[in-house]
Amino acid sequence: MRIDIVSLFPEFVDQCAAFGVVGRARERGLLSLHGWNPRDHAEGNYRKVDDRTFGGGPGMVMLVEPLRRCLAAMRGADPVRPRVVYLSPQGRRLDQAKARELAALPRLALLCGRYEGIDERLVQAEVDEELSIGDYVLSGGELAAAVVVDAVARLQDGVLNDAGSAEQDSFEDGLLDCPHYSHPVEHAYGTVPEVLRSGNHAAIARWRRQQALGRTWLRRPDLLEGRILSKADQKLLDDWRQEHAGDAPDGFRGR
What we know:
Layout: E1 2-6, H1 10-16, H2 20-27, E2 32-36, E3 50-52, E4 60-62, H3 64-76, E5 83-93, H4 96-103, E6 107-112, H5 120-126, E7 129-132, H6 142-153, H7 164-167, E8 186-187, E9 190-191, H8 201-219, H9 231-243
Parallel strand pairs: 1-2, 1-6, 5-6, 5-7
Antiparallel strand pairs: 3-4, 8-9
Helix pairs in contact: 1-6, 4-6, 8-9
């Protein structure tokens, strides 16, 4: 997969993507990352890329032309047409389903804004979709782009040493992940649950599923709103709720 980063600081995303899973994906040739700076396509001695906003108010807005030329150069660097995603607080919220959708693309371009954002005319003419990583404001889109790169890279075939690792992640099936334990079995902080040491794979799978359902009910009840559970899952959750009745989240007790 190829990901192009259009940013005034493309090296920031490149450095974030040099380590861990993403770095391994790049080393294995499963992901290529390319940076594009709009300032390289600006004119004049000062390479101006922003100006005051019409209508007054604080802050500056990124200009159309440097970005338009930068996007044209980016598109021309590879025959595969990229999907251009603008990282913006106004965009759809990134979730695991969206990460999987983007990971299936052969080429993705991430457009990072700065200042008060990007001239709306450029967004309307050149952007395929807007994407947000949460309901808060950052200084620019670079951190959000790094998040998207990481979420997408780890879903590429061959990136994770154990393919089942991604399948167990939180949100893969709309639930939070179950708890995990390692050595030693006995510790001052507690003991590894006996079921995980039993060797009974069916019992372990049942325990993990119940923990995932229970944790979701306790910590993110919104993920269960409107969800129709199978009879087996409903039984697991009912049993878990009875055991943890005192831990019910506000507004969710008794459902």
